[in-house]
Amino acid sequence: MSHRVAILGVGMTKIEGAKKDQKLDDMVFEASSKALADASVTREGIDSVVISGCDELDGRCISSMLLAMPAGAYLKDEIKVTDEGCYGVILAAMRLMTGLFDLSLVISWCKTSEAPVSDVMRMRWDPFYHRGFGMNHITSTALMAGVYKSQYGIPMDIPARVVVKNRKNGARNPNAHLQRPIKLSEVRSSPVVSWPLRALDCAPESDGACALVLASARKARELKRDPVWLAGFGWATDSYYLGGRDLSKLRSLGIAAGMAYGMARIKNPLKEIDIAEISDFSSYHELMVYEGLGFCRPGRAQDLIKEGLTDMEGVLPVNPSGGLLSSNPFTASGLFRVCEAYLQVKGNAENHQVQGVKRALAHGSSGFCAQGNAVFILSR
Amino acid sequence: MNDGMTLRGGWNVEYNYAVGTTGKKFFDALIEKKIIAPKCSKCGLVMLPPRSFCERCFVPAEEWVEVGREGTIQAFTIVPVKFESLPEPPYAIAYVLLDGADTALVNFIRKVDLSDLGAAAKKLSIGKRVRVVFEKRRKGTINDFHYELIETGQARRQRSKK
């Protein structure tokens, strides 16, 4: 990359089931001001603001009109991405790479507790061919889980072990929404919510906001910082029509990862990446993401789980923060992954810190059955 | 702290969605108990739901073909719990690759006993054959038909152009 982009700091609110004491803009302000403080810069120094939110979940049309202000954009540049929060990093990084901007704040949020999430997800489907069939974020991801399970004969214990792993990690993260570790038997006995997914196979719905401060290489040098570098990133989108996709694999993720790995010169991700923070909408989905990211061959993610390779003590710990199965502020979840990856590289992840992290991967995803995927490589 | 006070508000927006000529043609055919699909003039992909262009070749799709009234389950789920604004449980849905089509089409699978989830999931396994059953009264919407299992059919894998 000719124009490198640095990450100078991050800010996250605690992720909770319902943040009843904070109005939406309060929560956004908390995240943006924490990020500015962490980066040791002021709002005055910021010359570009990229925000990402979901109007229907915010219950406001063009919610950026309200939320640009708590994001620090008063009488400044502001631009909005209406996608998964991590796409804000892509837009901000590209704008910094043009040389037109030097210091950027990226922010995303979601207050699922205020929104009819299932209904909004139902409304994501077109009204002619899909909307009447009872598909939301959970029932559609169940379709994909069923295909994957059938294709590779995944025993039920494997996804259950993914849940146990992530919830165990989440218990060490004071910022996580669900902090109680769970047992395999609890996953197995939780009720089916959409075959083959059980309640505990699915990510919860949470409230939270997070932000990052990004800088051009020139600015990072001028500020004499010891930044974390955005060494690579990539993104791709698959078809909207699930019936035209091979639901046993995440093709757009493979493309996104290839792009990010190419930029960061990664050839063997399992060996060259120290930790990964991925978007696990469900336990099955985490397995599929391993394969999309090239950690193993198609159908072999179960081996990584059996051998504990993605545990905290494994060769490539996945979701030391607990992932989405512990905390899921919906459209902001991917940006939280980037923040967590930053903490790991910086060595600031406290109780869930993995030792000696030099290179971390973050993954965000959006759309039905992970239609869109974005991958980020952060390094020293 | 305001000890968790909330203010009740709603959002009820109604839309008049334009169906378009491609959709109209498809829905009119449903009234005649036919399922028709546009075919890409370049790659030959037969697309359901119908689209006016091929998203892969990025050319208009103007040729139409009639597809079969039977097909193969590609993906399914059974929903035993109530979700806000979704149908009353239990219900089963499936993406079915109709014979002659290259992309699968979702609809309800009816007439399967869903009281025992495990047994129902076995019955509805991927690869099972289903038939299209048209409703008696058809209005030119996607609910003019649903799927039902062909009980004697052996499960088989069917590959489409994906």
Description:
The complex is a heterodimer of chains A (380) and B (162). With 380 residues, chain A is an alpha/beta fold. Chain A folds into 2 domains: 5-116 and 206-228, Thiolase/Chalcone synthase (Peroxisomal Thiolase, Chain A, domain 1), CATH 3.40.47.10; 134-205 and 230-379, 3-Layer(aba) Sandwich (Peroxisomal Thiolase, Chain A, domain 1). Chain A is built from 15 helices and 11 strands. A 9-stranded mixed beta sheet of chain A has the order 3-2-4-7-1-8-11-10-9. In chain A, a hairpin with a 2-residue loop joins strand 5 and strand 6 (197-198). The radius of gyration of chain A is 19 Å and the shape is globular. The model of chain A has no long low-confidence stretch (mean pLDDT 95). By secondary structure, chain B is α+β, with helices and mostly antiparallel strands. Chain B has a single domain (20-149), classed as OB fold (Dihydrolipoamide Acetyltransferase, E2P) (Beta Barrel). Chain B is built from 2 helices and 9 strands. Chain B has helices at 20-31, 117-123, and strands at 36-39, 53-54, 59-60, 63-66, 70-79, 91-98, 105-110, 129-134, 145-149. In chain B, the strands form 3 sheets. A 5-stranded mixed barrel of chain B has the order 5-6-7-9-8. The longest helix of chain B is centred in the N-terminal third of the chain and has 12 residues, at 20-31. Chain B is globular and about 60 Å long. The mean pLDDT of chain B is 90. At the A-B interface, helix 5, helix 6 and strand 5 of A face strand 5, strand 6, strand 7 and helix 2 of B.
